[in-house]
Amino acid sequence: MKGIELSKKFFNEYCLGELNNKAPHLIDKINVGLVGEGSECFFLDDEISRDHDFDKGFSIFIEEKYYKKYKDLLENLYRGFFGDEFIHNPRKGVICTENFYQRYTNKRNIPISNVDFLNIRESYLSVATNGEIFFGRDNLFMEMRKYYKNFYPRDVLYKKLAAYLFQMAQSGQYNLFRSIKRKDKIAVFFAKNEFISGAFGALYLLSENYMPYYKLRKRYLESKNYYPPELFTDLEIIATEENEEKLYYLVEKISIYILNILKLREIVDTRDNFLVKAAEDVTKRIKDPRIATIPIMKGNFNV
């Protein structure tokens, strides 16, 4: 059983009734779920990840205007749910809604500006919107959750997409093969890493999913079933392949795959497979002058 399923089952079968009995006046003021850091919040927990922080705990989110007044009551109730099995975990328990979102977005309310959106780490947005809320009303927590889950404003998406395309072109289509010719293995390693990172950045944007922390990127995107398995196989091969011809073929294959998506969606019209041209096309679509004037490579500096 996945961690979220375990927490949800425990809450619904035992804790909800206790809350109704002992704090009925708080039922319409809280949201309960499992959201935040940890592979279980991405539905990716497995035997390896369960060696730490794997339990039936959950989070109770409550707005700041109620948090100070009811924090102690809720924390005592939460501890009581577990009895002698209670283990303190700062990721779970009673959490102030505004504190939670400030931690990951640096904002306590919505809406936010395009520049503010661009300045939030992608992995933080991923953490702030993952998991599942399995009890609660449409209050501030859910309003903010829905706002961020609606994904990037169009101009922010274009700025980030242009940066990733430029990164792929510079590292994979250009510097990788110059580094191979120089027999600079360290430079080859870094060029591959930059290309793969840029590809994942673009793929996440095009699937409208926030990109998580690096160790979860491949598995989480695979779990969405948005792209063909062959794509991930090709990216894995690039990581270890040394043959220049094979690398050239795979780099171009992945670059053209992404380029074709952009053409199909009428985001670019370039006929050049070199992704710098695609990045330039995407940049031309940005209407917000505050975003348009930011240097292209700053579009993905907050990953």
Can you walk me through this structure?
This protein has helices spanning 3-22, 64-82, 97-105, 114-118, 122-129, 140-149, 154-181, 185-206, 217-223, 229-240, 244-264, 275-283, 289-292, and strands at residues 30-34, 59-62, 93-96, 132-136. The chain is mainly alpha-helical and 303 residues long. It has two domains: 3-149, no CATH class; 154-300. Strand 2, helix 2 (64-82) and strand 3 (93-96) form a beta-alpha-beta unit.
Q: Any idea what the shape is? A: elongated
- Would you tell me the overall average pLDDT? 95
Computed CA radius of gyration, to the nearest angstrom? 22 Å
Domain tally: 2
Sheet with most strands: 4 strands, mixed
> Which band does the percent of strand residues land in?
5-15%
| Secondary-structure element pattern, one letter each | HEEHEHHHEHHHHHHHH
Q: Based on DSSP secondary structure assignment, what is the total number of beta strands?
A: 4
What percentage of residues falls in helices of 4 or more residues? 55-70%
Structural class: mainly alpha
Distance between the termini: 31 Å
Uncertain residue ranges:
none
Number of helices: 13
Write the layout of secondary structure elements.
Blueprint: H1 3-22, E1 30-34, E2 59-62, H2 64-82, E3 93-96, H3 97-105, H4 114-118, H5 122-129, E4 132-136, H6 140-149, H7 154-181, H8 185-206, H9 217-223, H10 229-240, H11 244-264, H12 275-283, H13 289-292
Parallel strand pairs: 2-3
Antiparallel strand pairs: 1-2, 1-4
